Prior knowledge:
Strands 3-4-5-6 form a 4-stranded antiparallel sheet. It is of the alpha+beta class. It has one domain (21-301). Mean pLDDT is 93; it is low at 1-17. The protein starts with 20 loop residues before the first helix and ends in a 9-residue tail after the last helix. It has 14 helices and 6 strands. A hairpin with a 6-residue loop joins β4 (158-164) and β5.
Amino acid sequence: MLLGLNVGRPAAADQLPDANPEAFVRILFESETDSARAKLAVDKFIDPSVDEVAMLAQIDGMVATINKMLGTLPPDAASTSMEKLKALRTFLYEGGWWNNDRPFQYDLSDPYGQQSGAQSLSHYLATRKGNYVSMPTLSLALGERLGLKLTLSTAPLHVFVKFTDDATGKTWNLETTSGAGLTRDEWYRQKLPMTDEAISNGVYLKTLSRREAMSIIATSVLDKLITVGRYEDAIAVADVLVEAYPANVYTLVKKGTAYYRLLDASIIKKYPKQSDIPADRITYANDLYRANQEAFAKAEALGWREPKLN
């Protein structure tokens, strides 16, 4: 049970609580909570103004509406995973009484959710405009409550949903930024080029385990720590995320970035010339540089390559 978890003193929305982010993430992995509660706990850790209880009630209300939609079908049909998936897609992406004619849409103005708070479920539910983080996470949260076999998967700078059909045992990709249609791996490989090594090493297109999916959900904490300049905390959180999902190359790259930012803030900006670095700081500077290089090297060894943003 993560709702109501208090890990520190309250903070403004653009800050983080005075708490131990590493401990928070470890608790997240150790809990038996579902994806909705985990995502809301992450959102609240990043922004303490998030009302977890209200958001969870809203999600439960959405599930009740989808079940009401399913109630119009014969019981045998309504119980199948395919019909549940169809109802979920209709609820989210087609306007009607079920969503007050306000379908959810991909926010083309901020597809990566880079604006403050844009990756949170509360922002997505309020605006009905989402991104590659909020859209798959909401589909996962709702689908789990409907009894669907869903998890997350990744492509370069992208997250989507994996769905396993109970009737056939076949697993499909659901592209939640585009109506959650059934999508083949080949489509992702064409749109978001990735190496064969990355796929074979479980970096991309993998049907993630619960812990691996939690590692993806919790990366928002890592991103926020880097944004607010808490680089040492970011590195500690990255280690926990990689422990849960060793092929989480996004986290490895962010860890490398955190080491560079720490090097920049503590050494480069203070000592513009290498000759200015005090003798007692040279080893520290070298350690930071080496750790930065090692993090990127590990990502590249797994098949990661610098993605090209459109």
